[in-house]
Design goal:
252 residues, twelve-stranded antiparallel beta sheet
Length: 252
C-alpha cells in the first residue's frame, strides 16, 4: 500500500485551483430553520483558522443568531495512482477549540460541497453543502484538541474522491454539525450567548502540519506507464478497463 497527501491551497482566487473557507449565516433571534435553510450571509477566506462549525443561542428563548459551516476543496489532479487502486481515504482537521454548550452528544460531520468557484468560496455557497455523510461523525466530547483529528471516509466518501480523480481533479468537502445535517433541533438546549463550536486551523496557517489534509491510500503498482503514457491517464488496455488489468508484461 502507498499513501499520498493533499491540502487545500492557501489564499483564494487568482492562480488557485482549490482553497478553504468558512461560510456564515447570521440573523438576530432567528428560528433554527431560518438559519439552516438560508442562502448565506458571508464568507471568510484567506484565514489561518476558522469555524468548521459554530452555532449560537440568541437572547430570545429557543432562538439562535449564527450558524457557520466549513468548505474545503482539494486538488488531487497530481495523484499518481488510479481511482480503481484507492482503498481508503481520510480527511484530517487540526482542531484547536471545541465546545458543546447547546446540549450534549453533538458531533461534526463531513459532507460534500458544491461551491460555484472551487478556488474562491463566496457567500452563496453556504447552501451548497449536502446532507449525505461521507464519513462517521466526530463526536465533540471525544475530540482531543491541538492535534489532527481524522474523518475516515465511508463508501460514499471514497466514491466522491474516485469521481474527482477521474473527473475535474477537485475533491469538494464541507463540515456541518449533526443537527444541521439532520435538520433537527431536538438535541439542542437553548441558552443565551452559549454556543456549540469546532474551531480548526486552515490552509493559510503558517504551520504546515496543522493544515487540513486529505490522505489517499491505494494499492501500489509496479506499472507506472502504459505505452509511454502515465498509467493514471490510461482508461483501457486491450479493450479492458485499466483498473481491472492485474498485470502487463508480467508486472503487477
Amino acid at each position: 500500500m502507498a499513501e499520498e497527501t493533499f491540502n487545500p491551497e492557501a489564499g483564494s482566487g487568482g492562480a488557485n485551483t482549490s482553497c478553504d473557507d468558512i461560510t456564515t449565516q447570521e440573523s438576530a433571534n432567528a428560528l433554527f430553520d431560518t438559519l439552516r435553510d438560508a442562502a448565506g450571509g458571508s464568507a471568510t477566506a484567506d484565514t489561518t483558522a476558522g469555524n468548521a462549525g459554530f452555532f449560537r443561542g440568541a437572547a430570545t428563548t429557543d432562538r439562535y443568531d449564527r450558524l457557520d459551516r466549513g468548505i474545503f476543496t482539494i486538488d488531487v489532479s497530481g495523484f499518481t495512482g488510479a481511482s480503481g487502486d484507492v482503498t481508503g481515504v481520510t480527511f484530517g482537521l487540526y482542531i484547536t477549540i471545541k465546545s458543546d454548550q447547546l446540549g450534549t452528544g453533538h458531533s461534526i460531520g463531513l459532507v460534500a460541497s458544491a461551491p460555484a468557484d472551487v478556488a474562491d468560496i463566496a457567500t452563496g455557497d453556504y447552501d451548497s453543502l449536502g446532507v449525505t455523510r461521507l464519513a462517521t461523525d466526530l463526536t465533540i466530547s471525544g475530540i482531543t484538541i491541538n492535534q489532527l483529528t481524522y474523518f475516515t471516509l465511508n463508501a460514499a466518501g471514497i466514491t466522491a474522491v474516485k469521481t474527482a480523480i477521474d473527473g475535474d481533479g477537485i475533491v469538494k468537502l464541507g463540515t456541518r454539525f449533526d443537527f444541521d445535517i439532520d435538520d433537527s433541533e431536538v438535541s439542542l438546549t437553548w441558552a443565551n450567548d452559549e454556543f456549540t463550536r469546532i474551531y480548526v486551523s486552515m490552509a493559510d496557517n503558517a504551520t504546515a502540519a496543522q493544515r487540513p489534509v486529505l490522505t489517499i491510500t491505494y494499492s501500489s503498482s509496479d506499472i507506472k506507464t502504459v505505452n509511454g503514457l502515465a498509467k493514471a491517464s490510461v482508461k483501457t488496455y486491450d479493450g479492458l478497463a485499466i483498473a481491472s488489468v492485474k498485470n502487463i508484461n508480467g508486472l503487477a
